[in-house]
From TrEMBL:
GO terms for cellular component: membrane. It comes from Aspergillus oryzae (Yellow koji mold). One of its GO terms (molecular function) is carbohydrate:proton symporter activity. The chain crosses the membrane at residues 7-25, 67-88, 95-115, 121-139, 151-169, 181-204, 269-297, 309-332, 339-357, 369-393. Belongs to the major facilitator superfamily. Sugar transporter (TC 2.A.1.1) family. InterPro entries: MFS_dom, MFS_sugar_transport-like, MFS_Sugar_Transporters, MFS_trans_sf, Sugar/inositol_transpt, Sugar_transporter_CS. It is found in: Membrane. It is a multi-pass membrane protein. Keywords: Membrane, Transmembrane, Transmembrane helix, Transport. Residues 12-417 form the Major facilitator superfamily (MFS) profile domain. The lineage of its organism: Eukaryota, Fungi, Dikarya, Ascomycota, Pezizomycotina. This is Unnamed protein product.
């Protein structure tokens, strides 16, 4: 049986990696397919390529609603974890999320009508929402305190990889865009990640904190021993187990429930809750997701590049963003969470100011090149704090008994915006 570092790497690459590649891949995957001729023929109701005037405006509205239906599903999926997360446990919730995502993917890539595609999009979002709300909590609860930040910040790295992977795969299918296999194949590929999660999750340990919550301290002790690669009766394991038990006893002594999130008291639960909510709100307001989704269009309109070259440059920009996530990986535990957020926010503000100025010269080619350059610089600063550390912080500031609920609300708030 795997233990210690081997077990930690298995958690990362069999569960965390595919879960958050799904997050990034599906968030931007459809946007790059909507101009494929085979797509337009299949779904004429959302054709914005061959229409003009009022019809184009109407189709664009419908297209936006169809694409956004994924977000609505994810919002529901993350919120439902507030209630089922502590009932099912972390592993069963993750398995359920992967199953639901797989059903959505099957409906999407086999769709011959817009209604079926939209239903598939909602169901896919539901599953991904459950994964995004549960996986960081499970990983955080299984990680030692000194490695928790690094381990959980990997979520942002895999989201960035998902965005980049989408662009490269869509570019690969771009040269066969006349065939429906181009967009169906692109939408079917992430099913591999769902299957990986489903096949792996029960080979890995349950959260020790959830086991203690369910009065299974003996199992939690064995789990901690495997995770830390130590003897089950060693002082380190007994001390960590006792710490979890004391934390749960303190939170349960006051009969803590969901309604207590909205009260202050000695633990300042509402203050912690507001921090979690505002952090995810600010993460979305940075515009990082918007830029990642629409970056090919930005390059086409600003630099007047051809569609093919714009897609390559967009894929390169998002690959650069993924590489820059390694900076956040090393910064988050060395400088702390607040410093990472401040560096990231300050750098992005500088880039946004530069983009505002350069884009004011609409017909200046040099200004357009500067705009493209600052998109790359922006993609350096974003992962330092606001693409990974934002998943760590809510899980750390929430009390054990309300950890899933607070984290689920914070992730739902992220999907909302």
């Amino acid at each position: 049986m795997m233990q210690g570092e081997a077990l930690r790497f298995a958690q990362i690459f069999l569960i965390v990696c595919p879960s958050f590649i799904l997050f990034g891949y599906n968030q931007s995957g459809v946007g790059g397919l909507t101009d494929f001729p085979s797509w337009v023929r299949q779904f004429p109701e959302i054709d914005t390529v061959n229409t003009t005037g009022a019809q184009k405006s109407h189709n664009a509205t419908v297209q936006g609603a169809v694409v956004a239906s994924y977000t609505l599903g994810a919002l529901f999926g993350s919120l439902i974890c507030t209630w089922i997360g502590d009932i099912l446990g972390r592993r069963r919730t993750i398995f359920a999320g992967a199953c639901i995502a797989l059903i959505g993917q099957a409906l999407e890539c086999s769709a011959y009508a817009l209604a079926q595609f939209t239903v598939g999009r909602v169901i896919l979002g539901w599953g991904v929402g459950m994964l995004s709300a549960t996986v960081p909590v499970w990983q955080s609860e299984c990680s030692p305190a000194d490695k928790r930040g690094r381990n959980v910040v990997l979520t942002g790295m895999f989201i960035a990889f998902g965005f980049a992977l989408t662009q490269w795969i869509n570019f690969g299918f771009y040269h066969m865009q006349e065939r429906s296999a181009s967009w169906r194949g692109s939408l079917a590929i992430p099913a591999l990640f769902s299957l990986t999660i489903m096949g792996s999750i029960f080979l890995l340990p349950e959260s020790p904190r959830w086991l203690v919550l369910k009065n299974r301290s003996d199992t939690a002790q064995q789990t901690l021993a495997c995770l830390r690669q130590k003897d089950a009766v060693s002082p380190e394991i007994m001390h960590e187990l006792r710490g979890i038990e004391v934390s749960l006893e303190e939170s349960s002594s006051g009969n803590m429930g969901l309604r207590d999130i909205f009260t202050m008291g000695e633990e300042k639960l509402f203050y912690r809750f507001v921090l979690c909510i505002l952090l995810q709100f600010f993460q979305q307001m940075t515009g990082g997701t918007l830029i990642s989704v629409y970056i090919p269009i930005i390059f086409e309109d600003n630099l007047h590049l051809g569609s093919s070259l714009a897609k390559v440059l967009a894929a390169c920009a998002l690959t650069w963003k993924f590489i820059c996530c390694f900076v956040g990986f090393y910064v988050v535990d060395r400088l702390g969470r607040r410093a990472a957020f401040m560096i990231s926010g300050g750098g992005m503000s500088m880039c946004m100011l530069a983009l505002t100025v350069s884009n004011s010269f609409s017909n200046n080619h040099t200004a357009s090149i500067i705009s493209a350059l600052f998109i790359f610089i922006y993609n350096f600063f974003l992962p330092v704090g606001f693409l990974g550390a934002n998943f760590v912080y809510p899980a750390e500031v929430a009390p054990v008994r309300l950890r899933v609920a607070m984290h689920s609300f914070s992730i739902a708030n992220q999907w909302l915006w």
